[in-house]
Amino acid sequence: MAGERYFQLVFQFVFPGDGQLIWLTLAGQSRQFTARHGYTTVPGEYTVFTQAGTTNPLLSTAESLRGAIEQDLASRGLADKYTVASTLLAATTPEDADGDGYVDDPSVDSTGMYKGQITLTARYYDTTLDIGALQIGGFGGAGNDYPRFREVSRNPTLLPLLITPDVQLATCYGSATAAVQLTVSGGLAPLAVRWDDGVTTLTRSNLPAGTYRVTLTDANQASTYRDVVVGENPRIDVVVQKTEAGVTLVASGGTPPLAYLWDDGNRQAFRADLGEGTHACTITDALGCSADVVVEYSQLNCYLVRNPIPLRLDAGALYRQDPDLKPNLTFVCQVLVEEQYLSGQFTAVGAELEQPADRDGRTAFQVQELLAPYLRHHVPAAVGPVTERAESLFKRFFLKYAQVYGTPPVRAAALSAEQHYVLLGGLSFTEARARTWQNSYQQQVKPFLTWEPREKEVFVDQPEFLYYQALVATPSVRLVVELRFDDSTTQELNGGEVEGGVQRYEVFCFGCGYAQLRLERLPATQRARITGWRVWVADDDGFVVSEVRTYCLSQRQAPLRRYVLYANSLGGMNTFVAEGEAQLDAEVSGDQVELNLPLDYDPLAGDTAVLERELKPVLKLASGVHLGRVQQLGLQELLLTRRALLWNAGRWLAGYVKTKTVSVLDDGKSVPTLEIDFVLPAERQFTPYLPPVLAGQSAAPVGPDSGAV
Fold first, then answer.
1. Which CATH number is 477's domain given?
2. CA separation for the pair 132, 209 (Å, rounded)
3. I need a labelling partner for 317 at 20 to 30 A (CA). Which of 230, 248, 601, 691 fits?
4. Are residues 209 and 268 in the same domain?
5. How far apart are CA 15 and CA 114, in angstroms?
6. What is the DSSP letter of 437?
7. How many domains does one find in the chain?
């Protein structure tokens, strides 16, 4: 604080005469104090000490007067309101040589002249504690014919300088409509006001939000300042949420209620009927403040996570004409993923990303690496029919983004949040750039998620699965199976149905092998006549919504055949048939240490301790001689796969295809074949396969060949 001052009264005296009176007006009452030449304890009286030849008498007199004043204050409950101080002041000449109008006391010895002084000071900034002028009564006893008291100073209370602002908010965010009215007090009038921009009035108007410093100065040049914070009503913030269902404007801030007006006259926050292109909406609050929102609407995408997933942002043509419209422009982006499909709970992935705009006001984020950890290959059941949504294979996610600009930079009021899908797959280097898959191929061909030939030879026990991605929403889809018999007749079966609503870009797994379709349930005479089957997906109205694939039932004898299920580049699972002779190698590694043998060593312990042993099974498989050129080229998928499973005794065994140089195509060979090394998990203990025991059955003993690959 500044400009403040407590009340203070200072008076001086020399030896008062016996009976001399003074009056002090304390807290509105006049109080009398009487000098006594002789010791006294009567309230309102004090002792005048007169011993000559020492400086103590005058000081003792001052202390006695101080005690009388303090006693009076205490009796009235004012002891905590004032401080009373007594002291002795030296003078340099006798009599009245100092010209103060008072005769100096001649009773003090020749070593010097002195005065007593009493100082009363209020403890608080309170004008009710101010004391009136010192009043002096008679001189007292005979011979005291000159004044013995003098008021030196009496300063009234000055309250601290105070600035109290009354602030009226700016009506709309960013507008210059705020006002300030100051109330000032304290100090010694007159008071002067000065704002940091030079204005000297107590009233300010047409102000934008911000912090304004004002300084208050009194007549004593004491000053204080205050930073006046001028606020504004909340900004109208909008999240433009784009989902498969449509566009929702999620507005907050402003002064409710909020009203919406689209450029086509619609007044709803949610729009399910917007066509592709640019749309505008004005949001207005109860005070008439508004925010204009531009919505760029287009079909949402399903991205392949092993190719770039770009978010290209552009500040627009106006920025390119005048970049000063958005100084220090950057873009921020946040990825949110729905870990549990259809839960509606989207979790932020990592930290918010921020990138500066280039000279044209553009930037591009790539987010595929943030999404990849949330996707896993789908592994269908090893036995039985399969008709299920492959939820681990795809995810929904939001891309939230906004512009940030200004000095200092501030996030723009409009924030966009686009919902997309991402699939565990990818296209080749060339095709990813060409975008033929997204622009035309998938929509027109409606392929299953595989690059295998559309017609495929299969064995009775061969597991086969097709993955279907819905390109339009529909109430249900089903796998249609058309059996073909040796007399050219056909029979249509339901291979599995998905009900309860199918969303665009969802992926479903359908079992398409002989066992997965449960064809063994057909009568034996009918089964014997099956030559193959065709499959496709139909919607609830029976319209075909996928390509048609054909499976030809093989009659060849291939007793050594083995099956490897492997993930293809589109996210589906293909089956590789190895009909050739197989070889199982065991890559054994371990650690051992030579023992330090004592003289009385145990020969049964040997001279080496085995610390660790690990056996890595490597199954060398060959496709056999049945491959054609198309099949041979298609098996490049197998060499690139990141997920492979070996079919073994009605179960899947995890492993991987070992990297090595392989001849994919050799025109010089009349009989093309493909050889791979399938590496199984390393083992540290040997255990044969223990088949599960069904309820009501007993476990049968097994040998070391149980589950042999």
1. 2.60.40.10
2. 49
3. 248
4. no
5. 10
6. I
7. 6
Determine contact, residues 470/442, Cβ cutoff 8 Å: no
- Are 322 and 429 contained in the same domain? yes
276 and 310 co-located in one domain: no
User: Domain with 198 in it: what CATH number?
Assistant: 2.60.40
pLDDT band at 111 (very low <50, low <70, confident <90, very high): very low
What strand order describes the sheet that includes 644-648? 573-578, 562-567, 644-648, 651-657, 675-679, 608-622, 583-594
Nearest to 149 by CA among 163, 165, 133: 133
SS3 label, residue 97:
coil
The pLDDT of residue 6:
78
Distance between CA 56 and CA 50 in Å, rounded? 9
- Tell me whether residue 514 is in a domain: yes
Least Cα distance to 67 among 49, 43, 36 occurs for: 43
Q: Are residues 309 and 293 in the same domain?
A: no
Q: Which domain holds residue 415?
A: 300-445
Contact between residue 494 and residue 519 where contact means Cβ atoms under 8 Å apart: no
Confidence bin at 113 (pLDDT 50/70/90): low
Residue where a domain terminates, one of 299, 324, 354: 299
Half-sphere exposure of 589 (CA within 13 A, CB side): 4
The whole-angstrom separation of Cα 693 and Cα 695 is 7
Of 60, 84, 118, which residue sits at a domain end?
Answer: 118
Residue 129 placed within a domain:
no
Same structural domain, 437 and 521 = no
pLDDT > 80? residue 4: no
Per-residue pLDDT tens digits for 596-645: 999 999 999 899 999 999 999 999 998 886 777 788 788 889 999 999 99
Cα 86 to Cα 121: distance, rounded to the nearest angstrom: 12
pLDDT in tens, 484-497: 999 999 999 999 99
How big, in percent rounded to 5, are the helix, strand and coil portions of the chain? 10, 40, 45
**Domain-embedded: residue 59:** yes
Q: Tell me the pLDDT tens digit for each residue of 426-448.
A: 999 999 999 999 999 999 999 99
Query: Does one domain contain both 346 and 417?
Result: yes
Tell me the C-alpha distance between 198 and 217, whole Å: 14
Say how far apart CA 413 and CA 99 lie, in whole Å: 78
Give Cα 585 distance to the centre of its chain: 52
- CB-based contacts of 468: which residues, under 8 Å, 6+ apart? 448, 449, 477, 479, 507, 508, 510, 537, 546
Residues 332 and 386 in one domain: yes
Mean pLDDT, residues 333-346 taken together: 96
Peptide bond into 190 cis (omega under 30): yes
Chain center to CA of 527? 61
In this model, does residue 582 exceed pLDDT 80? yes
Secondary element (H or E) of residue 588: strand 583-594
Least Cα distance to 247 among 292, 312, 293, 286 occurs for 293
Q: What is the mean pLDDT of residues 345-359?
A: 95
pTM: 0.75
Is 294 within a domain?
yes
Out of 167-176, 193-202, 318-327, 628-637, which region has the weakest mean confidence (pLDDT)?
628-637
Place of tokens 């010209």: 99
Higher pLDDT, 171 or 132: 171
Pair (456, 535) in one structural domain: yes
